[in-house]
Amino acid sequence: VKHLKEFKISFSGLSLGKHDFSFEIDKNFFDCFEYSIVKDGDLKVDVELDKKSNMMIANFEIYGDLSLNCDVCLEQFDMPIDINEQLIIKFQGNQEDEEIDVDEIMVLPRQEHEFSIADFLYEHITLAVPHYIKCEELNEDRSCNSEMKAALEKLSPNTAEVEEKEQIDPRWEALKKLNRNN
Ligand SMILES: [Zn+2]
Question: Of the candidates 57, 42, 160, which has an alpha carbon nearest to the alpha carbon of residue 105?
């Protein structure tokens, strides 16, 4: 996807030592991932790349707001995140590396001169989003929209109420008797 081409670090011309990069993530980024649970956000990514003679270490800080929809009150809200992650970049050829199968290690072909961080960023941002999104737990400045919550609860009566109705309704009693007779 075109937009993701921006999320690359070109390292071949860099001297050994530390180098800083920064990236910005917004709606265009999430639009590139068809099934993303996050649709929008406003994030910054700082990367400190430590280039060594046979490998590289990239330290990431991903911070800002994700725009999410609350599962309880359905309102859109900002979830602040601040993620620190490390990625180790190695090169093919060393036998010990071939056996490594860990997310946090990227193995590049020898002749490669750049690497993409788009998938790495997407994965770690997605992991920060809980399975059940409740706005007031994810943003301390929020409380769930209680009117909406009450309205939604009315639309879906809980099972206790249904059972109560069954007991009261004479038609249910009649049906139950029929069943027993069978
Ligand atoms: Zn809410």
Answer: 57
Task: Kindly give, in sequence order, each residue whose CB lies less than 8 Å from that of residue 13, ignoring residues fewer than 6 positions away.
Answer: none
What does the pLDDT look like over 121-164, one tens digit per residue?
999 999 999 999 999 999 999 998 777 777 777 777 665 555 55
Report the distance separating Cα 38 and Cα 30, nearest Å: 7
Note whether 114 and 9 are within 8 A (CB). Answer: yes
Closest among 120, 105, 103, 118 to 55, alpha carbons compared: 105
Q: How many Å lie between the centroid of ligand 1 and the Cα of residue 38?
A: 16
**In this structure, which residues have their CB less than 5 angstroms from ion ligand 1?**
70, 72-73, 135, 144
Distance CA 67, CA 154 (A): 27
pTM of the entire predicted model? 0.77
- The residue among 72, 82, 76 whose CA lies nearest residue 133 is 72
* CA 146–ligand 1 middle distance (angstroms): 8
CA of 35 to the centre of ligand 1 (A): 22
- Rounded to the nearest angstrom, the distance between the alpha carbon of 79 and the centre of ligand 1 is 11
